[in-house]
Amino acid sequence: MISTNNLTKQYDVIIVGGGHAGVEAAHIAAKLGAKTILITSDKTKIGLMPCNPSIGGIGKGHIVFEISALGGLMPHLCTESYLQAKMLNTRKGPAVHGLRLQIDKALYQASAQRTLESMPNLSILENRVATCCFDEQKNITGITTETGQRINANAVVITGGTFLHGVIHIGEEQWPGGRSDEAATVTLADHLKTLGLTIGRMKTGTPARLKKDSVCLDSMDIDETEPLEYLFAYQPHKTITKAVCYITHTNETTHEIIRSSAHRSPIFSKRITGTPTRYCPSIEDKITRFQDKSSHHVFLEPEGLSADEWYPNGISNSLPKDVQEAMIHSIPGLENAVITKYAYGIEYDFIQPNQLDQTLQAKEYPGLFFAGQINGTTGYEEAAGQGLIAGINAAHKALGRQPYIMHRYEGYIGIMVDDLTRFGVDEPYRMFTSRAERRLILRQDNVFFRLSPTAYRLGLISEAIYNEIMDEQAKITDLLQQIIQQQLHIQYAQAITRGEHKLVQDMIRLFVKSKGTTLSARGYDNLFAELLYAPYQERELREIEKSRTYSTLTIPENFSYKNLPGLSRELQEKLQEHRPKTVADAQQVPGITPATISLLIFKLREQK
After folding, report:
1. First-to-last CA distance in the chain?
2. Neighbour tally for 482: CB within 10 Å
3. Which strands make up the sheet holding 82-88, listed edge to edge?
């Protein structure tokens, strides 16, 4: 540990790294009034989107909405830079819809830099952090840079991304790097190991980039969209499609090119040792895991309005350059495609996140926070959500305020943080709606009603915005009561049972109009969802209340799960293996259902 002598500069919060986690942490800490400094190796790369040019999607979009409700930055950057908006999964219920935006990377990055540079309480330093500094009780006191500067603070947030001991792979070639043209972080990575933190190794990758005018779009399908009336921010926004995406497919020729070059792939040859992303696999992984599929989708996404490149989503790889060219030229429409940047795989260090508490603070080092891919996650959205939580809590730590914890039943960010800190990870973590036990309540359409009271209490949103949100919620509550009083909900429920959702939505609009009032597009979505899920929400709310009431109920060490009638042998074995100490612990055992928890609570209360 470093001595606390020779103090040079004093801040409340230090943010290390300028990726999506770092941007969100710096923005929110400064917004809360903490004197904040963001340290990054290259100021021009702040807010960079190094991989796909999109934000949101199923599960991921929920995180961005929650960032919006809590006064975060990512949603506003999206509004300023989007090219195309699409609501995914609309054939299913609104609880699992997912807003996804194509983003102009250059505009997003410029907007992020412009916003941070103009923020009160926020300084930006171009340098590399070498070590963290602690007092004798292991409390963080600041950092030192590789140029020998000492900067003091009461809280430090490290957002190392893919830089810690990063190694880039293209076929047989490999070299140290945090991203394609940026140096790896070595000194800080070595220092974190000396702290006794458990470090793992993970792998991700990115596809090649293709010159726009070298691609033949005539043989491809357009990825169609429909106009929307709001994005991630609270304010209404009628969408405009400024650029479109196209769809093509790999084929057996493509797959054979990859298979025949397996000995040259760092994945197949095991030169890459990091754990890959199961839910966003490289094309090498796809043809191995899904051998029955003769083709895979390739989405051609624009990198930006002024950019001269396509991003071919779906063919991420780390193959040799000549194999990449042959593979790409085998795909319809890409026969003459010119590669402007080759695909690569990257492996990097991460810290096991179960060493953190639910504020994302290291349990052994008070004041030291971690956020983003360094915690074993993948994706811009997951990183930004963690950055928000770490930034809030770092500011609160420095300013002597109470920590903020979002619980699982409050939001997807709470689910993510709880999953990470409770269980750790054995592969890159990605958010899905299936991870949410209470997803009928944790929806996109009600996110501002759910989280705005907390955001206002913490000082993250203005009183004017808070009042506007609460006024709309009161209006919807009143309309719901009138619908029930007039027994129209019975008629709506019958139509919903017949699958006539569009008819019910039209009926709701006519009803609202007949009352001489208006709602936003999101308000209409919320009113429909409340009617659709009403019978189920009551049950979920009861389960949440039961979980709150009995979460601290202890489970005796000698408790026998074999005595629980109706419990499958699989669940008995899982509970026996994990031996949870409380009902709250039992809830987090993978595969445990709400019905199991209710049964467990009943049995424990009976015994007591």
Report:
1. 49
2. 13
3. 54-56, 98-103, 82-88
Q: Are residues 216 and 331 in the same domain?
A: yes
pLDDT at 592: 74
State whether residue 145 is helix, strand or coil: strand
At 301-322, the pLDDT tens digits run 999 999 999 999 999 999 999 9
CA distance 54 to 442: 23
**Cα–Cα distances in angstroms (integers) from residue 111 to residues 119, 242, 462, in the given order:** 12, 18, 22
- This prediction has a pTM of 0.90
CATH code for the domain of 569:
1.10.150.570
In single-letter form, the type of residue at position 507 comes to M
- Amino acid of residue 198: T
Segments forming the whole domain that contains residue 482: 462-543
Residue 278 is classified by DSSP as: T
504 with 578, same domain: the answer is: no
Asked if residue 538 is part of any domain, the answer here is: yes
Write out the two tokens for 359: 């504020």
Burial of 284 (0-12, 13-18, 19+ CB in 10 A): buried
Evaluate whether residue 498 is within a structural domain.
yes
- DSSP, collapsed to helix, strand or coil, labels residue 184 as coil
214 and 339 inside one domain = yes
Written as six digits, the tokens of 315 are 């063919």
